[in-house]
């Protein structure tokens, strides 16, 4: 019997093994490339969110304090109007595509939009009365509320290290308030309200995004569509609040509206508002609500330092220590979350 058939079979097996090996290598390479792409998107969106978030807070503080502008709701309304105009121009010119606003879409999105407006307004009022460093430390309370919300809403459990970090954040917030030389009860009240609304926004947005996709014509809802939807719906609600808080009388008498430099600054804040709306939704799309809140903790460190030096905030050794203790608690929280995620 000729050995040729056995030889041919052996060669065919070797060829098959080689081909299978190449396919496995290609599949592994493809999976690795996809993983790197996902990680790069998450990293890029996180960096963009941090830069826009820090810039927005500093510019808003400058407008409200340095210019002594006493119409925070009107400032929010103008910023959102700028965002709507810019996104609409880009959409009509064909640079971007956005989903049309339908009645079904508005009904689905309205709850998260009400929270969005409340979050922006409470942030404006807290910045009016508090220094940037204390605002950033008090924002750590948002992480606590978000973690509790994820536990009850999404059945997500956190380990002891995460809860320890969250406890440290609460301690730093309390000690920071006690030692704050510029303590203002109204500002602290607005900031606590802002913490609850910010946590509610990140938790609700994650759920609403999935529901909203189902009522779109394309079955998809990108960041620009969400920015346009959010800011457009905020305009009538913001206008109503301007009337209720009687900011019209102030706007009709303030000389600030006659200053070109003031209009340049608030228009810049409008562009930053668009940027933070886009980057926050983009980042939340790439990660989870807790990671979104976690990265917000880390960018508080440069923001707090910049706020103290830029606005010449009077502070004491005890207050400075409590601020940096709170910032370190945020870093510890970030580490704990990363370790928790790697073990899950």
TrEMBL record:
<keyword id="KW-0472">Membrane</keyword>
<protein>
    <submittedName>
        <fullName>GDP-mannose transporter GONST1-like isoform X1</fullName>
    </submittedName>
</protein>
<feature type="transmembrane region" description="Helical">
    <location>
        <begin position="261"/>
        <end position="284"/>
    </location>
</feature>
<feature type="transmembrane region" description="Helical">
    <location>
        <begin position="291"/>
        <end position="313"/>
    </location>
</feature>
<feature type="transmembrane region" description="Helical">
    <location>
        <begin position="188"/>
        <end position="205"/>
    </location>
</feature>
<feature type="transmembrane region" description="Helical">
    <location>
        <begin position="42"/>
        <end position="64"/>
    </location>
</feature>
<dbReference type="InterPro" id="IPR050186">
    <property type="entry name" value="TPT_transporter"/>
</dbReference>
<feature type="transmembrane region" description="Helical">
    <location>
        <begin position="319"/>
        <end position="336"/>
    </location>
</feature>
<feature type="transmembrane region" description="Helical">
    <location>
        <begin position="76"/>
        <end position="96"/>
    </location>
</feature>
<dbReference type="Pfam" id="PF03151">
    <property type="entry name" value="TPT"/>
</dbReference>
<feature type="domain" description="Sugar phosphate transporter">
    <location>
        <begin position="45"/>
        <end position="332"/>
    </location>
</feature>
<feature type="transmembrane region" description="Helical">
    <location>
        <begin position="226"/>
        <end position="245"/>
    </location>
</feature>
<feature type="transmembrane region" description="Helical">
    <location>
        <begin position="133"/>
        <end position="155"/>
    </location>
</feature>
<dbReference type="InterPro" id="IPR004853">
    <property type="entry name" value="Sugar_P_trans_dom"/>
</dbReference>
<keyword id="KW-0812">Transmembrane</keyword>
<feature type="transmembrane region" description="Helical">
    <location>
        <begin position="108"/>
        <end position="127"/>
    </location>
</feature>
<keyword id="KW-1133">Transmembrane helix</keyword>
<feature type="transmembrane region" description="Helical">
    <location>
        <begin position="162"/>
        <end position="182"/>
    </location>
</feature>
């Amino acid at each position: 019997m000729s050995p040729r058939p056995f030889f041919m079979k052996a060669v065919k097996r070797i060829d098959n093994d080689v081909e299978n090996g190449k396919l496995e290598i290609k599949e592994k390479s493809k999976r690795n490339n996809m993983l790197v792409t996902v990680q790069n998107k998450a990293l890029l969106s996180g960096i963009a969110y941090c830069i826009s978030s820090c810039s927005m807070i500093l510019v808003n503080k400058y407008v409200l304090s340095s210019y002594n502008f006493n119409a925070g709701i009107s400032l929010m309304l103008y910023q959102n109007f700028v965002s709507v105009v810019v996104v609409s121009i880009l959409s009509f010119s064909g640079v971007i595509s956005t989903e049309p606003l339908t009645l079904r879409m508005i009904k689905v999105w309205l709850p998260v939009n009400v929270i969005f407006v409340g979050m922006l307004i409470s942030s404006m009022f807290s910045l009016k009365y508090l220094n940037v460093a204390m605002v950033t430390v008090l924002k750590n309370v948002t992480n606590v509320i978000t973690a509790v919300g994820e536990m009850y809403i999404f059945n997500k459990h956190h380990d002891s290290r995460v809860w320890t970090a969250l406890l440290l954040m609460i301690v730093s917030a309390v000690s920071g308030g006690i030692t704050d030389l510029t303590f203002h009860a109204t500002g602290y009240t607005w900031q606590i309200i802002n913490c609850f609304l910010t946590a509610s926004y990140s938790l609700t947005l994650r759920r609403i995004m999935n529901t909203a996709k189902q009522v779109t014509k394309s079955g998809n809802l990108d960041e620009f569509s969400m920015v346009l939807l959010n800011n457009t719906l905020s305009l009538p609600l913001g206008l109503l609040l301007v009337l209720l808080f009687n900011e019209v009388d102030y706007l009709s008498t303030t000389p600030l509206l006659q200053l070109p430099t003031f209009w340049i600054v608030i228009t810049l804040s409008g562009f930053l508002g668009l940027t933070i709306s886009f980057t926050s939704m983009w980042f939340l799309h790439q990660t989870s609500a807790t990671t979104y809140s976690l990265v917000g903790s880390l960018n508080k460190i440069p923001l707090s330092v910049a706020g103290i030096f830029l606005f010449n905030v009077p502070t004491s050794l005890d207050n400075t220590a409590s601020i940096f203790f709170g910032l370190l608690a945020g870093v510890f929280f970030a580490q704990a979350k990363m370790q928790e995620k790697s073990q899950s």
